[in-house]
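Weekly sync, protein design subgroup
Attendees: M.S., D.O., the rotation student, P.L. (late)

Item 1: inverse folding check
M.S. brought a backbone from last month's batch and wanted to see whether the design step gives back something sensible before we order anything. D.O. pointed out we never logged the input encoding, so this time it goes straight into the notes. Structure tokens as presented (393 positions):
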């Protein structure tokens, strides 16, 4: 089955659910915000967009799909996004349906969380934020957490948030996220707004994933009063790059590749090269002359030592298979689907896709076998049910 994922849901989806954090500290009417972006993908970016026709200029951080994961506008409003457990919420048809530009619209037009509240309150966010949420913080220190079915305003001088919904979490002591609880303890022991303290707090909250394959790809520490961003890379808090937002917005729009700013971070550079190597291999897979030979595919994976890395790209591999299914020769597509089944033997969708491949090739017996295997793993797979009805008449 070809699963379609929108740009928005790519933004909200996290390979390691439960890994992300934002804190805000307000002292003497000055507010600082820190964020750790925890993910396996090292293709991180920072970009600047000047305001147009009265809108506010922004700095955004994110990945190479350029959907903002976080950022700050020229008025000092900061936002960040989180993944949370997917849940079904009752839609509100009396409200407007949002599009993927809503987040940027907010950052281009709002100064305070009160203004953000007025905007998001117009929209039904139950689908858009079914597995995610946003937080906004303004220079006064006020914050707003936006869930699909709840808006939580706060004015505490210190606040820490991770991958859980505040409206559904009455007891913070029960949040089962160890780094979140460690951060709470550090903040409860006393806070200040020195960069030394803030970077230490970010370090307490940081993540390192197994095999050095990701974790905290970057950390942003925002000074909302001065409109300054301190950027750290790949959970190294000994070096940072400082960006003055006002100065950058007086220049032409620009984009920087975050790993390029930290060439001395050898661990981060290795992670970047490894994932880039895997993505280059995916481009090779999309070539039917290469993918028609399964043994050649496997030999190249072994030669480049890509076996572990490819386990991060199940949807990408699946999508390549469906593109190749448009070719006259179905062998390359079938080989791609076979690859996904090999790497994801417990995935109902992988078997379903392989069934589609054999169905398109006219191999009835193998199509039936793979659709049935898919149904064993997911009895509610309607595509397999429909295809088996056609094949077993």
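Designed sequence read out in the meeting:
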């Amino acid at each position: 089955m070809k699963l379609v994922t929108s740009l928005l849901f790519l933004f909200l989806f996290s390979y390691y659910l439960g890994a992300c954090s934002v804190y805000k500290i307000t002292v003497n009417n000055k507010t600082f915000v820190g964020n750790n972006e925890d993910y396996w993908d090292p293709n991180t970016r920072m970009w600047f967009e000047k305001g147009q026709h009265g809108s506010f200029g922004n700095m955004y951080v994110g990945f190479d799909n350029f959907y903002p994961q976080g950022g700050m506008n020229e008025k000092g409003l900061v936002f960040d996004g989180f993944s949370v457990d997917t849940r079904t919420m009752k839609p509100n048809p009396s409200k407007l349906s949002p599009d993927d530009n809503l987040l940027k619209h907010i950052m281009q037009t709002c100064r305070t969380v009160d203004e953000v509240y007025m905007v998001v309150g117009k929209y039904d966010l139950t689908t858009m934020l079914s597995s995610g949420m946003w937080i906004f913080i303004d220079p006064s220190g006020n914050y707003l957490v936006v869930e699909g079915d709840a808006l939580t305003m706060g004015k505490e001088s210190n606040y820490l948030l991770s991958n859980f919904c505040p409206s559904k979490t009455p007891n913070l002591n029960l949040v089962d996220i160890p780094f979140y609880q460690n951060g709470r303890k550090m903040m409860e022991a006393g806070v200040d707004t020195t960069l030394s303290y803030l970077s230490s707090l970010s370090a307490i909250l940081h993540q390192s994933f197994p095999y050095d394959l990701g974790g905290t790809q970057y950390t942003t520490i925002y000074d909302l009063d001065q409109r300054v961003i301190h950027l750290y890379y790949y959970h190294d808090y000994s070096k940072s790059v400082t960006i003055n937002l006002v100065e950058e917005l007086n220049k032409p729009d620009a984009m920087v590749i975050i790993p390029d700013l930290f060439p001395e971070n050898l661990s981060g550079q290795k992670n970047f090269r490894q994932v880039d190597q895997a993505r280059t291999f995916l481009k090779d897979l999309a070539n039917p002359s290469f993918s028609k030979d399964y043994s050649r595919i496997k030999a190249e994976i072994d030669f480049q030592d890509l076996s572990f890395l490819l386990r991060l790209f199940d949807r990408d591999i699946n999508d390549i298979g469906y593109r190749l299914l448009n070719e006259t020769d179905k062998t390359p597509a079938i080989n791609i689907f076979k690859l996904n089944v090999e790497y994801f033997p417990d995935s109902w969708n992988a078997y379903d896709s392989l069934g589609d491949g054999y169905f398109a090739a006219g191999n009835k017996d193998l199509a039936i076998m793979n659709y049935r295997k898919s149904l064993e793993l997911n009895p509610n797979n309607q595509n397999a049910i429909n295809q088996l009805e056609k094949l077993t008449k």
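Discussion: Residues 2-18 have pLDDT under 50 and may be disordered. The longest helix spans residues 266-285.
Action: P.L. to compare against the previous round before Friday.
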